[in-house]
Amino acid sequence: MPKKNPDTALPRATNQLLEIYHASTLSTSRFEDRYWETQLDRLIRKHLAAGQDDVIEAALDELAKKDTDEADDLFEQVQATCQSLELDVNRQPWQAVLITSAFAVWTRYQLPQVKMTEEILAQFIDVLKRTVLAPDVKLAALPKLVGIDEMPRSFSQTSEWLNKLANRAVGKRAAMPTTITVEPNPALLVDTRHLVMAVAAPKGQPIFRWQADPSMAQETCQSTWGAAIEPVLAQLLPGCQFHALVPQLYHSSIELSEQHMRLIAIISASEWLHSTLNLKPGELRATIAAVGEQSVQEYRIGYHRGRQQDVIYGTIWPVFNNFGAAENGSIVDTVDEIAAILKDCDVEHVKRIPGVLLPESCDDCGAPLFPNPSGELVHVDLPEEAFEAPQHFH
Ligand SMILES: [Zn+2]
Question: What spacing in Å lies between the alpha carbon of 371 and ligand 1's midpoint?
């Protein structure tokens, strides 16, 4: 396939980015790899600094038309570039990365709007430094737990957040990043919250504890972090349950938390239904159906009582993909995974609907329809008792 001819319909800057990207894919050695990586990094940084997300997006779209693996590859390069940077500290080269510490939060009541005091933020930072980060790093964090809707929507915004926080981390003057304002959703029972921070160290020095001590397993850091942060979170999020995920670089952390939320959606729904409707063990049952237009976009899980056909609640298990094929794994594997989680939540009877259903939603309210045990997608009909149960935590 001829790919060297620049596409005249594309802007020059996009063609230039594609040209360097394609040259990088023809590299024959690590030596060349590093050269092209630096070239790409420089060019991407230039576009990020100028807020030219359109140039990058156009290059990604163009690649995706021909080769989704290449689009994924460039996408990862762009992500890597916007979550790390080098900066000068007293004429020494330093590096900084954007990290988030993600928390899955759920409650039977309403998710509280949390205010983080300086004292609580200091506790978070202290625990991070003791359990996850390398001993001598510097860091600056956004003084609140933010939801995904409040976080950057573009590569250049992500890069700007890092820039500001990284400068603050090393003691330079920079404004605090501005979060995107969103209306609080009163019905939200399950969500993720992120503590976003830049962590800086002299170039080549470790950022994470497991880099500083290669014998330290990441799982050990995860469990000590989880245990140590729990009392701080309990104080901040009264009436909520939560999981603290291990802090990671920005994009991996978001991906990890979105995957984790699929599980929390099921756990929280079954806990809530069991307690609100006073269900006996084994009474709550579920039906799983794969849903999508051409390929599976998501799995819909309809919940029902005993042998009844009415779907009383539904949760969605999204399938994540960027440009290429969806995540590895067949429909059977995913349905097994979902069924295993349901079983852990005391939902023993799980019906699996074969094939892929069309993603139907309600004509009136737009709500997604969920499978009943006969394999039809129907409207959720939450029993009256559920509305009478207390919705707010006092
Ligand atoms: Zn409706």
Answer: 15
In angstroms, what is the span from residue 110 Cα to ligand 1's centroid? 23
| Paired strand residues for 84 | 97
Question: What's the pTM?
Answer: 0.86
Alpha-carbon gap, residue 247 to 225, rounded angstroms: 9
C-alpha–C-alpha distance, residues 263 and 266, integer Å: 5
Cα(312) to ligand 1 centroid in Å equals 13
Q: Which pLDDT score is estimated for 328?
A: 55
Backbone dihedral region for residue 278 (phi beyond 0: left; psi -120 to 50: alpha; all else: beta): left
Ligand 1 centroid to 306 CA: how many Å?
A: 24
Distance 270 CA to ligand 1 centre (A): 22
pLDDT over threshold 90, residue 94: yes
Sign of the alpha-carbon torsion through 4, 8, 10, 11: positive
| Amino acid identity at 218 | Q
Tens of pLDDT, residue by residue over 314-357, are: 999 999 876 655 555 677 889 999 999 999 999 999 999 999 99
Residues 123, 139: Cα–Cα separation, whole Å? 13
Contacting residues for 183 by C-beta, under 8 A, at least 6 apart: none
Q: Which amino acid is at 217?
A: A
pLDDT digits (tens, 9 = 90+) for 186-215: 666 788 999 999 999 999 999 999 999 999
